[in-house]
Design a protein that fits this description.
The complex is a heterodimer of chains A (223) and B (113). Chain A is α/β, with parallel strands linked by helices. Chain A contains 8 helices and 8 strands. Chain A has a 7-stranded parallel β-sheet, with helices on both faces. The model of chain A has no long low-confidence stretch (mean pLDDT 89). Classes of the chains: A alpha/beta (223), B alpha+beta (113).
């Protein structure tokens, strides 16, 4: 009869994904492609912000977009009308992207010659925070109607991102949103975070955001 | 409920481990989940059958060990359980704490041959 025995594994569940994410990053570094993982709640204005970003940068760098959605191509069609390379990733019901899905997406998109690729993650603030996608940097959009107390509710997300865009600041007066208080809450969780208030609607703050991207892409492409 | 995606990740990791270590049959899987982790043990159990469906772990038994969420008070150095004390130091009532444990999500072991 077969003997069963206890075999110790003692591995953090995220280790395996983390290793694959590091491999993705090495490839991107070699290809001189800067990958930004963009996360947010549904309805925070990710696609509109992306359109603004493309408009600001498309004459100076080659851009690619990977749109992750549970199951539709509405956003991908909107973006492809802006004239950049775009691919739609269907997560098939999954609430986040992992390093493997990112890798498949990058292969599908073809990173050759691309300077800047945005991975538009699934609209959700819990699971994407736990899975390293292999991106060069992580960004998040928080929109004014969501409230200045959002950092208190989703601390992990705010502590892993490199840059936070606070979108819809044109609507600040209609919502009880305290920008300084929000910044303070975010900095407490993540002292190194860069916070940029923007309005994707009227273009406010987009230039500062574009500058951040320019600097990061340049830094990434250095040997 | 984001446990399913993570449990699928667990299954992949265990399958890889089994392949590398030439394990043919798995009887049970033991996970360790910190009580301050974003994984809720009840939900992990609920989605387990769906996650293992059609994999090497189909028909395995899942066991979950919950690890306590402990913190160190930065004011008076008392160690205490975060949930039981609602994040407040029972000794000096300060809320200035450093987490020592409780956010783990580990694959502890498998029973296999």
């Amino acid at each position: 009869m077969d003997k069963f025995r206890v075999i110790e594994i003692k591995e953090s569940v995220f280790d395996d994904n983390n290793r694959r994410a590091d491999l993705v990053r090495q490839e991107l570094k070699k290809d001189k492609t800067f990958l930004l993982n963009l996360m947010s709640s549904p309805g925070s204005g990710k696609t509109t912000t992306l359109l603004r970003t493309i408009e600001a940068l498309k004459d100076e760098m080659q851009i690619g977009i990977m749109e992750a959605d549970i199951d539709s191509d509405v956003d991908a069609r909107t973006i492809s009308n802006a004239g950049v390379k775009v691919i739609q990733l269907h997560t098939g019901g999954m609430c986040h992207l992992d390093a493997d899905m990112t890798k498949q997406g990058l292969e599908g998109l073809g990173t050759e010659g691309l300077d800047f690729v945005v991975l538009e993650n699934v609209g959700n603030l819990v699971c994407p925070a736990e899975f390293d996608t292999g991106s060069s940097k992580n960004a998040m959009i928080l929109s004014v109607p969501e409230g200045d107390d959002k950092p208190l509710k989703y601390p992990l997300m705010f502590s892993i991102v490199d840059v936070l865009l606070i979108n819809k600041i044109d609507a600040m007066e209609f919502f009880d949103f305290d920008l300084e208080l929000c910044k303070e809450r975010v900095k407490k969780l993540n002292p190194n975070i860069k916070v940029i208030p923007i309005s994707a609607k009227n273009g406010e703050g987009i230039e500062e955001w574009a500058d951040w991207i320019r600097d990061e892409v340049k830094e990434w492409q250095k040997d | 409920m984001h446990e399913l995606g993570v449990v699928i990740e667990v299954v992949k990791t265990v399958e890889n481990f089994a392949r590398e270590n030439n394990i043919k049959e798995i009887q049970s899987l033991v996970l360790q989940i910190g009580e301050l982790s974003s994984m809720i043990p009840e939900y992990v159990e609920a989605c387990y059958p769906a996650a293992v469906d059609g994999t090497m772990l189909e028909d395995t038994k899942l066991e979950i060990e919950v690890l306590p969420g402990n913190a160190l008070c930065k004011e008076c150095n008392t160690t205490f359980n975060v949930l039981k004390n609602e994040g407040v130091c029972p000794n000096c009532k300060a809320k200035n704490l450093e987490l020592l444990s409780g956010q783990e999500f580990l694959i502890k072991e498998i029973v296999a041959n």
